[in-house]
Design goal:
Shape: globular
CATH superfamily: Leucine-rich Repeat Variant
Radius of gyration: 17 Å
Order of helices and strands: HHHHHHHHHH
CATH architecture: Alpha Horseshoe
Helix content: 55-70%
CATH topology: Leucine-rich Repeat Variant
Number of domains: 1
Largest sheet: none
Strand content: under 5%
Length: 156
């Protein structure tokens, strides 16, 4: 199979996600999202788990939302069970942006009450977006014990 120029550019951009420069990584995530291909999904999820810069993580999330849901859902759902808090948080955040309710089972009670405030907040947001019709009251009961948790930012 011959690679097109767009394929070659996207592959080069994907490889730049590991660049030491945040601005290069940001442009790389933009390029990969602009030319989505399922072969990039696992790498985008993996990079989201360790990316130190907020704006790059946000662009990685955007890039994942541009890929087919069938390709993104399984690795993101799997990532919710990661040992890394940032990986869990980013996966939940991205699932909330994708908004596909098939991801609802990943928003577990453990995620909603995660010891890491960022993970818990991401789970709360994902839960509100992904909750299936008729499950709203059960979700409210699961979230009620979290009221008053953490600092002011977490409480908001």
């Amino acid at each position: 199979m011959t690679m097109t120029r767009q394929d070659t550019d996207a592959l080069r951009a994907f490889e730049s996600l590991a660049d030491p420069s945040a601005s290069v990584r940001l442009r790389a995530a933009l390029a990969v999202g602009t030319a989505p291909h399922p072969r990039f999904v696992e790498g985008l999820v993996e990079r989201s788990a360790v990316e130190p810069e907020f704006f790059v993580r946000d662009m990685l999330t955007w890039a994942l939302t541009r890929h087919p849901v069938a390709a993104t859902l399984p690795p993101l759902v799997r990532e919710v069970g990661s040992k890394l808090p940032q990986a869990r948080s980013q996966a939940l955040h991205t699932l909330s942006k994708i908004g596909d309710r098939r991801a609802w089972p990943a928003v577990t009670g453990a995620a909603l009450s995660d010891a890491d405030d960022e993970v818990a907040r991401s789970a709360w947001r994902a839960a509100v977006v992904l909750v299936p019709e008729g499950e709203e009251q059960a979700l409210a009961r699961a979230l009620a014990p979290q009221l008053g948790r953490g600092d002011r930012e977490t409480q908001l």
